[in-house]
């Protein structure tokens, strides 16, 4: 049975002590974390995900636990461990090894479904989710149950986790390190054929960049008044300069637009590529991807503008010249069809 523990907590605004009631939970693997705190960005989480074809098979879990469960890990064991290395599966939306205990670092985006569950869980908790099979997803399918088209039931168990941080608790340097790691991870995933995972990594990086805007502006203002001191803080923990910030942001938008093109999302690709060209007008790849997106949307005038801008940057580029020829051919065909219809109307 749990008893409330009254702890004095000091407010930042004054030195007065305030009584705060906090609950201490005792679990088989040792002391767990308290109150409303759950895993946050950077937390190492010891989790197990299992898939059940039918919900009435839940009664067999206790038997399965005795066979497949590994010895409980304490909080210290997880603290000293590293994330379990595994490839993101291309044949399942769960993206994690099923049935085995796995160590995940929250925020790396190995599986958005699992991470979304973990964000609202406490140690020693289990949640159950229903998965609807995907029929026309971008290269993603859910294993079908033997019972037909019934929704699939999955359970996510959180054994324990290490402390993490919310984005507003992180320093600008820490956020910048996460941005760069997301960008690098996105490139690795794209080269391995995991386009959806790459798009997720680039999106995560862009979301963190939004929170860095004010820091970059403040730093740029201070840099005009005094020279930046690089001796007090390691270079890896320094927030980016304004030029570096804009360059990385443009590259992320450009890379995201490429993923969206391959995922058959031309409207999103057009928006991402347009942002990239605004941030870096000299980025040839972004102009080419903007032209491709507009061409897919049948916005031929905008596509021609993008390709012509690309030719200003890289004259005689074969891909741009070929695209312009295709657009000219499509325009002639459209005009011919329109002329034929008009002639029939007035004949």
Automatic annotation (TrEMBL):
Residues 221-242 are annotated as: Disordered. It comes from the Eukaryota. Pfam families: TPR_1, TPR_8. Residues 229-240 have a biased composition (Polar residues). Coiled coil: none annotated. The gene is fkbpl. TPR repeats lie at residues 284-317. Keywords: TPR repeat. This is FK506-binding protein-like. The keyword Ribosomal protein does not apply.
